[in-house]
Amino acid sequence: MQAQVIRGHGEIDDITFEADWPEPVAGPGEVVLKVGACSLNFHDLFTLRGMPGIKLGMPLIMGIDVAGEIAALGPEVTGWKVGARVMVDPINRKLGKLLGEAQDGGLAERVKVDASQLIPLPDDVSFEAAAALPVAYGTAYRMMVARGKIAKGEKVLILGASGGVGTCCVQLAKLAGAHVVVAASSEEKLAQLKALGADDGINYKSDDFMKEIHRRYGKPKFFGGDSGMDVVVNFTGGDTWVPSLRCLRNGGRLLTCGATAGFDPKEDIRYIWTFELNIVGSNGWLPSDLDALLALVRSGKLKPVIDQKLPLQEARTAFRRLDERSVFGKVIVAP
Ligand SMILES: NC(=O)c1ccc[n+]([C@@H]2O[C@H](COP(=O)([O-])OP(=O)(O)OC[C@H]3O[C@@H](n4cnc5c(N)ncnc54)[C@H](OP(=O)(O)O)[C@@H]3O)[C@@H](O)[C@H]2O)c1
């Protein structure tokens, strides 16, 4: 089969297109899917380049988010038929393994998963929309709903709002009835985010976002007042961390699920104690979060934002666009 393969950690040019890669074979309890669509995540760039403390088997086919059709059933699989449309929960919860990282993923014509990872995909949700959901939207759902408990009327600042996780955070915060302020690196992205529902936008490439928050929403005050933000969503880390703390009102919440720009930023704990801030971490999603997302998509309340769909052969272009921060929402790769 055709597949995009890495043989070790490296750079985007090290991702190799193979026209005749061995087909996966379904073992007991497993199924092989014909890949309909695979979406890229920033996590794939971490996988490609390597993360301290995470050792991966090579060669590896990346691609965590997959939707497609069942092509073959392994022994002992019950309740599924060849040809069924499915979305994949990328976490193999029996083994604690992530697709496209600890086992071969969706940047190929076919992929093998455990049958317990399958979620039936209704005909009215496309493979592309389904593939956009699990990692980015699943994590955003858990962060904004279960962990973050975003409520009506809250002022929420979202950094990195234009990406996969970010575009879902914007939509979920609006659905909760929050006032949503987005930060992005270009005017074009800000215009797209306003079209998605954002109430206010800050270009943090040209302006200091913390100063802009203080100017527009007031500088947080000790013990009271509603100056500043109720919530800052920060999965960027790096030099955005301390300024994010300084945007929060007394008792405010900083929600994090990642660190695109660096996981060991400078810290200033004075703001945490003085303003009695709550730092809320969030990791991954539950299968029930994916069910909830599918229901929101079907009801028309949530839109998986898809920037571009590229053929499998052009996966490197998709990776480059992600790396260059030029994607709005999700980029899809499909055989
Ligand atoms: N813990 C979990 O379970 C989990 C799950 C999903 C994602 N994550 C993490 O969440 C983060 C976002 O993931 P994603 O897939 O949504 O990424 P993405 O689609 O690439 O979006 C990230 C956005 O962050 C902004 N950004 C700011 N600084 C950046 C930098 N130095 N490099 C690249 N982008 C930067 C970019 O927008 P601007 O150009 O407008 O700034 C970009 O659109 C990643 O760190 C990822 O690992 C964690």
Measured by DSSP, the beta-strand proportion falls in: 25-35%
- Please name the CATH topology of the largest domain: Quinone Oxidoreductase, Chain A, domain 1
Please report the first level of CATH classification, the CATH class of the largest domain: Alpha Beta
How many structural domains does the protein architecture include?
2
The unique ligands bound to this protein are: NADP nicotinamide-adenine-dinucleotide phosphate
Radius of gyration: 20 Å
Low-confidence stretches: none
Structural class category:
alpha/beta
Principal-axis shape equals elongated
Number of strands: 17
Number of helices: 10
The CATH homologous superfamily of the largest domain is called Medium-chain alcohol dehydrogenases, catalytic domain
CATH architecture of the largest domain: Alpha-Beta Complex
| Straight-line distance between termini | 10 Å
Proportion of helical residues: 25-40%
Average predicted confidence as pLDDT = 97
Q: What characterizes the major β-sheet?
A: 7 strands, mixed
